[in-house]
Amino acid sequence: MKNYKSPLIGLFMSILLLTVSTNVGAYGQNGHRVVGQIAEWHLTPTTKEAVLGLLSGDLLPEVTTWADEMRSSPDKAWRARGKWHYISLETMDEFKPQDYNGEVKDIYTAIRKSIDVLRDPASPSQQKEFYLRFLTHLIGDLHMPLHVGRAEDRGGNTIKVKFFGREMNLHSLWDTHLIENQNLSFTEFATFININDTKKISNMLNSQPKDWVGETFALRGAVYDIEDGDFSYNYVYKHMPTAKQQLLKAGVRLAGVLNAIFDPEAKPGVNSVKLEK
């Protein structure tokens, strides 16, 4: 199996925020690791063994940032994969999940493709590792409201705002700065928001990726309502519950998808998602 732990990975991580286009970094590094840590806690033992067996020695929270880190690669194929991280919609009527035919056009079809590869016993292990790493990232991305954003402003990238006096764009506020404002490590953040309430977990898992697109779309109206665009404590108070909710859902659902793929004993709505055919 190809070793994805390149000696350049440390360099990639240190220069990531300078080199990666901000329209693909939902929740930043810390947020993605929160998703991965929560997911790891909700994996069944069978799934955890299978997942770790595919990751070349990496841990689940570690690989959730891989899809962004690899955009620093000189391989031109990574530029084309930028569209895998988002879907642009003006209205939900534009979203046609029934048209999926195996082609990757956006984040929804990238998730479907990743699941297809991982479920196929004939898929080579190297291919499975590639799509597993991508899937851990994409499910986090899909739960960030501006990754189901508007094409005209590139998911909030062209909307200028201030956060505690610091100039940035709306997308970077949501993908990184709102989370970092909590001053928590990813393990602390994950510990604080993780749940073991079976009813709430069941509600999160009784859904499919196509449903998550609609959920995220429904949240973005409040995110796009920026008023004067000069934010501080009131903004954190208003929007942090949504950010925490979406990180938690992403982590639980990532675990639910992986349990559905790798553990035949996993029960839909209890510890797994009932995947689309």
UniProtKB/TrEMBL annotation:
Residues 1-26 form the signal peptide. GO terms for molecular function: endonuclease activity; hydrolase activity, acting on ester bonds; metal ion binding; nucleic acid binding. It comes from the Bacteria. InterPro entries: PLipase_C/P1_nuclease_dom_sf (IPR008947), S1/P1nuclease (IPR003154). GO terms for biological process: DNA catabolic process. Keywords: Disulfide bond, Endonuclease, Glycoprotein, Hydrolase, Metal-binding, Nuclease, Signal. PANTHER family: ENDONUCLEASE 4. This is S1/P1 nuclease. It comes from Psychrosphaera ytuae.
